[in-house]
Each structure stands twice: as structure tokens, then as C-alpha cells.
Amino acid sequence: MTWKQVWKKVQVPVWKEIQVPAWKEIQVPAWKKVQKPVWKEIQVPAWKEVQVPAWKKIWKPVWKEVQVPVWKEVQVPDWKKIWVPEWVKIGIPGEHNVGKDHHGWQYTSHGLWKKKLIWKPVWKKIWRTEKKQIWVSDKKLEWKAEWKQIWKTEKKQIWVSDKKLIWKEESVQVWVPQKKQIWVTQKKQVWKDEWKSKWVPVWKDVQVPAWKKVWKPVWEKVWVPIESHHDDDHHGYK
């Protein structure tokens, strides 16, 4: 075995600078229309409360003297029939026992009298209460119409100054972003062919002595059996 130098082509990475396009953001001036709020003085209608004279019909209470009928209690004479008790003497007809004496004799009597309570009608003068209609003075509340001057609140239209917000268009300069193409240096990895040598072991053929067994033909005398077709009884060798 020997060592042999062998050259082999290999790919090795290398960095190569290249120019590639790129976008760069830049600020460029531009005009932009904007709406700007502006206060504008305008005249607007408004309602103002004012006092105006007016006549109002009112009802005023008034006391009026009137004659009204009333009932008056009066005493009037009257006769009333009443019953009064009275004792009267009444004769008892016939004979009547009136008692005994100490000897036991009965006493009798004729023309006896007795008292009897009777009710006798009597007319008595009394005073009876009656209602008599009379006229008396009284006050009656009446409502009298009158006109009174009052002040009434009314709304009057007037014009007042007011501010109204309006939008006015203006052009203002603004900076807007814009993309611009530029070329920038960039490293790109590429593969480069290179020859690289190295020593590798190899086998080399050399002539060395060795013994080889070969087969060589030679003539040798041997005894072989021979078969005879005429002499069947002979089994020997010739």
C-alpha cells in the first residue's frame, strides 16, 4: 500500500457582493385639501318674551241684600180636652148588711152611698207652637263681572347674532411617505469550484514469488481388466 495524491473538485461557499434593488421610504411634499372649522357670525330668529297689556274678565264677589222667607215659631192659644179624675157619690139600692153588734145581731141599712172615681172632660187653654213664615233680610253672594287690565306674556320674534360653525376648504402642505427604488450592496452566498488535493492509500501490484500447485499429465502403467466375448470360462488377466 502506497500513498497517492488525488485532486478533487469541490464546491465551497463564498460571499459575493451584489447590487439588489430595494425600496426606501422617503418623505415628499404634497398638497392636501383639509376642512378647517371657521366660526361665521349669522343672524338667527329667536323668541323673546315681552309684556303686553290685556283685559281680563274677572268675577268679583259682591254681597247683595235680599229678602228670604224663614219660619218663625209663634205661640197661639188653643183649647185642649183633658180628662181629670173626680170622686162622685153614688147611691146603692136595696138592703145591705153593715155589721154586727156585740150581741151578734146584724145591722142592715137602706140608702147607702159609695164613692166612685170618674174621669171628667175639661177644656183647658194651652199655648201651641206654630211656624209662621216671615221675611227677613239676608246677604247673598253674587259674582259680578269686571274687566281688569293685566300684563300678558307673549313671544316676539327677534333676530340675534349667533356663531355658526362652517367648514372651509384649505390646501396645506404635508409630507407623505413615498417609496423610492435604490440599489444596495448585499452579500450572496455562491458556490465556487476548487481543486483540493489529498493523499489516499492505494494498492500497487508487485511480483512476489509463490508456490502454485499444478497438475501435470504423466503416463503410468496400470493393470486394467479386459472383457473377452469368446472365452467365457476364462476369468484371468492377460
Overall 3D shape: elongated
Helical amount among residues, as a percent range? under 10%
- The rounded distance between the terminal residues' Cα atoms is 65 Å
Main sheet summary: 2 strands, antiparallel
Strand residues, percent? over 45%
Poorly predicted regions are none
Radius of gyration: 87 Å
Instruction: Name the helix and strand elements from N-terminus to C-terminus, one letter apiece.
Output: EE
Count of domains: 1
Helix/strand-derived category reads mainly beta
Number of helices: 0
The total count of strands amounts to 2
**Strand order, biggest sheet?**
1-2
Query: What is the mean predicted local confidence, pLDDT?
Result: 85
Main attributes?
two-stranded antiparallel ribbon; 82% strand; Ferritin-like_SF; 238 residues; 0% helix; mainly beta; Periaxin
Give a written overview of the molecule.
This is Periaxin. Pfam families: DUF4816. It comes from Ooceraea biroi (Clonal raider ant). With 238 residues, this protein is an all-beta fold. It has one domain. Helices cover 0% and strands 82% of the residues. It is built from no helices and two strands. It has strands spanning 2-100, 106-202. The protein has a two-stranded antiparallel sheet with strand order 1-2. Strand 1 and strand 2 form a beta hairpin. It starts with a strand and ends in a 36-residue tail after the last strand.
